[in-house]
Amino acid sequence: MKSASLGLPPLWLALLGGLGALLVLAAYLVACHVATLHRSPWTPGLYFLPLLAMMFSVVAGRHGPIVAGGLTAAVLGLLALVLPRWQGDLNLLYVLQHVCTNLALCWVFGHTLAAGREPLVTRFARIVRRGDMPPEVLSFTRGVTLAWTLFFAGTAVVSALLYAVVSVKAWSVFSNLLNSPLIGLMFVGEYALRRHKLRHIRHSPLMDSVQAFRQGWSVSDPTPSSHEPR
Length: 230
What we know:
Number of helices: 8
Number of domains: 2
Helix content: over 70%
Strand content: under 5%
Largest sheet: none
Distance between the termini: 44 Å
Order of helices and strands: HHHHHHHH
Structural class: mainly alpha
Low-confidence stretches: 219-230
């Protein structure tokens, strides 16, 4: 079935949308890098705008747009009050933002590896596979959760060391230009390894995985499948 507006199949529309999103992301990251090196007055806005957008999205999904809008406005007011009076190096704020974001993601994945919890990637896989979780899938997804935990922890450490030991330019190249491609490589590597190690297991389409990623954050008490110990 083709789109009535553009005459393109939905798959092509999805691919074009994904390509457009990647181009926007690339342009944003290059702008952050250039603004950091040239100490542009637009730099604080570039770094904090995506965080504010993510905060609005998360809060709006749980508490509604009014609460999200009020909280976002409050944070914007605080930034407008604090940033002009900041006497230290603004780059340090950007480094702290990058390090703390990665440490937060490290915790999001890592704390689900604790005893009695379901690893986060296992949760995503359960949604995609509709509860059919053979033992090899459980083992693999736990390993992937650990890999993402170590990745985000390593990213935070490298980010802090580059700023403290090397230079702001080296930090900006890593955080703005290399970090996102490295995340992409992690996804590609995980997909290739999964297709190799679990080649006898049913694999779902990529869009199902994306949908599971969006749903999985809110799943707290999954039902064990028939393959799991009860």
